[in-house]
Task: structure prediction
Amino acid sequence: MEKFVELSLDLAQKCVKCGLCKSVCPTYPYIQEEGGFARGRLALAEMVVRGELPLTEEVSKQWDQCAMCRRCEWICPNNVEYKEIITKAKDMQRETTGQGIVKSLGLKSLELLQSKLGRKAVKVAGMLMDPLPFAELKVPFPTGAVKFMPKPTAKAFGLRGKVFKAEEEKGKLLFFTGCMIDAFYGKTGENVIKLMNKAGYTVIVPEDIKCCGAPHYYSGNIPAFERLKNHNLEEMSKHNFDAIVVACPTCGGALQEDYGIEKPVYDFAQIVQESSLKFKGSGNRLTFHVPCHSYSAMKVSDRVFYELTERIEGDQVKKAEKDKSCCGFAGLFSITNPRMSEQIQREKVEDLRKTEADLVLTTCPGCVLNLKDGVKRHKVNQEVLHLADYLAETLQE
Ligand code: SF4
Ligand code: SF4
Result:
């Protein structure tokens, strides 16, 4: 509680109540109340800590309706540390009123997924489902959410415990694969390694990495985050590497901001951009969805993605008007707030559709999942791909 009080006083000095955060918040247009964007959510936290407001379900609801995209932090002229304050507020909420069954189960399943038994179960499920002639399954959730989820593949966790050597090695990268790539998008993981090797980097994938803990941190389960972080730091310390590479900006943000690692953390696209790799497309029209956490957490400039896509010879890039707007996924948010998530997703899909692009590229596996779900749901004839997959496909050997 003491730590939270400290942060709250800091907030009181920093937030000038300008309301600029309202203009970029994906949840405000649907909630249309002061508690529906950062200024109001922060004010509630402050009032609770000062003892001016009891921590009721109504207050908790305002915090739970936040997608934690952190676009408010990105736009804030006063550098208000929204994430730090709201995660502590949610941690206090968890200790006072509990986290709710759906969120608790969701967070626990992310931990179990990376246990020995969990990995085995996903692999077996992947082997059984691999021959099925579809890539996604329609999954209903008890909250009313229905999503097209990728089916696990036989490749699940297949990169673990291996070293992929570059022919002429410039340096060594530790690839923090992340839960989504591990369980569902193994091919994307292979493609990231292919690109890093071609750019001259040996890639190490540790055997026993668990979830980065960002979903736990953002949900206010700080003890679970600390547990995962300490496990991962110990596992990473067994290897000798120059930098960490990610293909998920949420993992990257957590590693950069909350792990206290001295070595740099790069998005794979930053390394490809710095390389001399060349790409040749086949006349596709491309558009790009910039994941919120790539600029709000990892602070990667979207220039990196546009410069890279413009390097693909023969293809044409069509910038979407709202290329940096949230896709509505936000992990557990899409399950616990299904209606709002679907509305945000619908707007995103409409904006992408207007570009008339054939291919939608992005750099976050969560956004890939949600945009694939969105184009399918709204019958939009666009293919969604992780940028690593398209770069590997168009790479000139
Ligand atoms: S933009 Fe920053 S300073 Fe302005 S109201 Fe939002 S949090 Fe406060
Ligand atoms: S994190 Fe995103 S959803 Fe939450 S208040 Fe900030 S802009 Fe709005």
Remarks:
- The mean pLDDT is 93.
- Residues 2-97 form a domain with the Fumarate Reductase Iron-sulfur Protein; Chain B, domain 2 fold (CATH 1.10.1060.10).
